[in-house]
Amino acid sequence: MVLLPSLQKPPSLGVGEPLSSSKPSDATSDSSEDKTASVYESHVEPLDKPDDAPDLGPITGPRHIFIIRHGERVDFTFGTWIPYCFDEAGEYMRKDLNMPKRVPSRSTGPQGFFKDCPLTNVGVLQATLTGEAMKEAGVEIHHVFCSPSLRCVQTCTGVLTGLGQVEELAIAIEPGLFEWLAWYPDSLPEWMSGKELLAAGHNVREDYKPFVRLEELTDCRESADQFYMRSFYLVQSVVKCTADVGSLVKAGGFSQLSGDNRDRRQSQGHRFLNCPLHMFTCMAMLRVLSHDELKKPEKDIYSPDTGFQTQFVRAVSHFEKSLTCGGNILLVGHAATLDVCSRQLVGGVPRTSQEMTRLIQKIPYCSLVSIKEAAEEGGWELSDLPFPPVTHSNNMRFDWKVLLT
């Protein structure tokens, strides 16, 4: 850690030491196990493709899920930095070339960075180098989901910049990708809003409806097992949501249904809003079609009795060439994200809090893991990356006065 003049190094966090809300996050810690049943223990049902759904020709080849930890963060590099880098008026002044030239404006002011710090310039470089390596290896991303933490959003933007996809691929901010809640016993960070992130230059989706709502994380005690369950629920949902448009049609309740099946599908209708092909996209499709072909639905568009499903399928068929079905997924999160979002997906069992804590000590900044769709239907397996990792040494702070000795 590089310490600024007169800055105190924050107390080290040992294995098994709970993290108070007065300390930065992303540390290794333990928590008493809360055996309360998790809201994520009921997994998302498979969404079967209806017989009359259009075949939109999904992206061929096995799908890959890339999971990456954020890059180097300011607080872990410089220790207590906010009192020394902001004046009384809240104006930012960088004290080291590895600090960002500027920090984004946020409603919470400088103190908002205490639990939600930015990346260092090296952190941005780590992310960009990783994205460039992915591009050189022929990797293409089709869907991207990111933790709401600023350091993760900045990492995501850096990776997409390196990939050359930063403008074409909007980021879905997903609270379910946030790290273990046991490290925030008092309160969660006050994350930047979508509008603030957009103003800061990040291409985020304002219309995205997260799988795990922020309210589900607030005031929630979470055991390590529940953390794994939350993450498994999330990655399952992301995989199914981005699988194919046929699933999206049925998830929205637009296939012909009757009796109990209709009631069941109506109860699942709002899942449709989580999918990349969301309602606003569908309505945009309908608007460009001839008024002679399509008429504005007069009833609730979620109802399977309105005939809107017929218009929807017709609209999709007109736009089949422009839709992304299947394809690769990028998840941007924290050190533990690499394990908690892959462990059960590849057939493993959740680790204990002690096992997880020891593991994440071995996951440095911008570590990345690849999960490949296995030959058997519904299976996934860890796979080698087609590009090398980024490695560098620490660079201590230089004081020219040592030459006076």
From TrEMBL:
<feature type="region of interest" description="Disordered">
    <location>
        <begin position="1"/>
        <end position="56"/>
    </location>
</feature>
<dbReference type="InterPro" id="IPR013078">
    <property type="entry name" value="His_Pase_superF_clade-1"/>
</dbReference>
<protein>
    <recommendedName>
        <fullName>Phosphoglycerate mutase family protein</fullName>
    </recommendedName>
</protein>
<dbReference type="InterPro" id="IPR029033">
    <property type="entry name" value="His_PPase_superfam"/>
</dbReference>
<dbReference type="Pfam" id="PF00300">
    <property type="entry name" value="His_Phos_1"/>
</dbReference>
<dbReference type="GO" id="GO:0016791">
    <property type="term" value="F:phosphatase activity"/>
</dbReference>
<feature type="compositionally biased region" description="Basic and acidic residues">
    <location>
        <begin position="32"/>
        <end position="52"/>
    </location>
</feature>
<dbReference type="InterPro" id="IPR051710">
    <property type="entry name" value="Phosphatase_SH3-domain"/>
</dbReference>
<feature type="compositionally biased region" description="Low complexity">
    <location>
        <begin position="20"/>
        <end position="30"/>
    </location>
</feature>
